[in-house]
Design brief:
about 325 residues; globular; four-stranded parallel beta sheet; binds 1,3-dihydroxyacetonephosphate; alpha/beta; binds iron/sulfur cluster
């Protein structure tokens, strides 16, 4: 498809409102680079009847510039189950696109970069789950959505950071196997009387935070509110004023309107949220997820133009994976 990626007066006019929104987090000198992509992607997605679902960790030019919906893993799965678009472009990591495909086998689901993985999803295989089920016969398997379709297919139900405690309790049993995030599992175990059997997976981004670092923020800025993602280590969560999913953290800022806040999670999110709450001062330590950052505007444009990279799920695996995802969506409705 022939196209000119220049910052023409037409492009400037079409993207002016978006730039006014993000001007505090994207330097003016960078906008002429992003703007032609923003304008073209927004045109093309309408022509293709495509929807762009973006995770909260996407960069501001994606989150505010081209996404039709932004949210946490649960929100993305829920939106994927509701859309009537023909094409879903998932700006996030592979397990998120795979979940959208599990829910929508008849739709084209695209991810702009096939290398967008996740250390949690890489920490466990379907074979590992089969072995665990042999070791703990009859104990239900609750699987974090940050896993492959193979792992979901071997599980009884999925969960996300937004609903993990609720899902574990909804099963009405004394004991569950919780996979694969060890820290999220420990956090869940603290919130419930259900015994939780854990796996050793961790998120390479959240495991880098430390309790000492958080105490340092509190000492330097006593009025600061500290809000953390449950993939963080236990000593970090102990120091936090609030623990929740990425959208849960945004909801907290919206409700509480703290004068100063630090979000202990991937750092693009603070930029995205700061745009929406100009009166809140965001302290922004930077821990980037290298997988989330593989998604860029040029790759989203190429994805829509060439319908790449299509995410497929083996129908035999999909059946079991859908059961686990659908059960989670029912419990979360
Ligand atoms: P959320 O579901 O809370 O957005 O978390 C997804 C994720 O990958 C966090 O690292
Ligand atoms: Fe996976 Fe961690 Fe990146 Fe989230 S932040 S996608 S859990 S590696």
């Amino acid at each position: 498809m022939a196209q000119t990626l220049t910052y023409s007066p037409e492009v400037a006019a079409a993207t002016h409102a978006t730039y006014e929104l993000v001007r505090d987090v994207i330097p003016e000198v960078e906008w002429p680079v992003h703007a032609p992509y923003v304008a073209l992607i927004n045109e093309l997605k309408v022509r293709r009847n495509a929807i762009i679902l973006a995770h909260n960790y996407q960069t501001p030019e994606i989150y505010h510039g081209v996404a039709d919906y932004t949210g946490d893993s649960l929100g993305l799965a829920q939106k994927a189950s509701e859309t009537d678009a023909d094409i879903i472009v998932l700006c996030g990591v592979h397990f998120m696109a795979e979940t959208a495909k599990i829910i929508n086998p008849e739709k084209t689901v695209l991810i702009p970069d096939l290398g967008a993985g996740c250390s949690l999803a890489a920490s466990i295989t379907g074979q590992d789950v089969r072995l665990l089920k042999q070791r703990y016969p009859g104990v239900p398997v609750v699987t974090y959505i940050n896993t492959s379709a193979d792992v979901k297919a071997e599980s009884d139900v999925c969960c996300t950071s937004a609903n993990a405690v609720r899902i574990v309790e909804a099963l009405g049993v004394d004991r569950v196997i919780f996979l694969p995030d060890n820290y999220l599992g420990k956090y869940v175990a603290e919130q419930t009387d259900v015994e939780v059997i854990l796996w050793e997976g961790t998120c390479e981004v959240h495991e880098r935070f430390t309790g000492a670092e958080l105490r340092g923020y509190r000492k330097a800025t006593p009025d600061i509110q500290i809000i953390a993602h449950p993939e963080c280590p236990p000593d970090v969560l102990e120091e936090a004023d609030f623990v929740g999913s990425t959208s849960g953290m945004i909801g907290y800022v919206d409700r509480e309107r703290p004068s100063r806040v630090v979000m202990i999670t991937e750092c693009s999110m603070s930029d995205n949220v700061a745009v929406e709450f100009p009166d809140v001062d965001f302290v922004r330590p930077c821990n980037l997820c290298p997988h989330m950052k593989t998604i860029t505007l040029p790759k989203i444009l190429a994805s829509l133009e060439e319908l790449k990279f299509e995410v497929e799920v083996d129908p035999a695996v999909r059946e079991g994976a859908l059961r686990s995802v659908a059960r989670m969506l029912e419990y979360s409705a």
